[in-house]
Design goal:
- The structure is a single chain.
- The protein folds into two domains: 5-74 and 135-150, Arc Repressor Mutant, subunit A (Orthogonal Bundle), CATH 1.10.10.10; 86-133, no CATH class.
- Helices cover 43% and strands 8% of the residues.
- The strands form two sheets. A two-stranded antiparallel sheet has the order 1-2. A two-stranded antiparallel ribbon has the order 3-4.
- α1 crosses α2 (28-35) and α4 (76-84) packs across α5 (117-133).
- The two termini are 33 Å apart.
- It is elongated and about 60 Å long.
- The chain is built from seven helices and four strands, in the order αααββαββααα.
- The chain has 175 residues and is mainly alpha-helical.
- The longest helix has 17 residues, at 117-133.
- β3 (93-95) and β4 form a beta hairpin.
Length: 175
């Protein structure tokens, strides 16, 4: 399962907005420069995020974008589905509904049960579970917190994303 640059850049854009949450709108140009991302591509991505009601825009000289709600209430499954449409572990899985559910296309082949269907359903379920358990607030904290400060990354964030706290990267201090 490979996510596109649309998902990567979209999450990076949201993390940057999360770092400035409560500070007012942030221009896409500022985000593009801070993250080293192409402005034209971010304009297309932010349109998807706006359509999903994850971001709001303000026009004018001091306009820009801001999160539509608190970073702690933004789950990554919602973000990825807004950006990618459907998350499918294999090309034989097809979008079944507008809810981002996937079904194995081999079920309709009259060949009986697909031998690998269970595996790919579990992979899909595991990925979606981890995405739903991850909030934008966690990513903002992991990235160094609000733009005005750089607090230490909470140990709870490290232990929920790493196999064990003792195996966390040395460059990230565990509390």
């Amino acid at each position: 399962m490979i996510f596109t640059t649309k998902a990567e850049y979209g999450v990076r854009l949201l993390v940057e907005l999360g770092r400035h949450h409560g500070d007012g709108p942030v221009s896409l140009k500022a985000i593009a420069e801070a993250e080293g991302l192409p402005l034209a591509y971010l304009e297309r991505i932010v349109a998807l995020l706006k359509k999903a009601e994850l971001v709001e825009s303000t026009r004018g000289a001091h306009g820009g974008y801001r999160l539509a709600r608190d970073p702690a209430s933004v789950q990554m499954d919602e973000v990825i589905l807004a950006l990618e449409g459907v998350v499918a572990p294999m090309s034989c899985f097809v979008d079944d509904t507008q809810e981002g559910r996937v079904l194995c296309s081999h079920v309709a082949d009259d060949r009986g049960a697909c031998a690998t269907r269970l595996l790919w359903l579990r992979v899909h379920g595991g990925v979606m579970e981890k995405l739903s358990e991850t909030t934008l607030a966690e990513l903002v904290a992991f990235a160094g917190g609000p733009a005005a400060s750089s607090p230490r990354v909470p140990a709870s964030v490290l232990t929920s994303t790493a196999p064990s706290a003792s195996r966390a990267p040395a460059s990230i201090p565990a509390s």
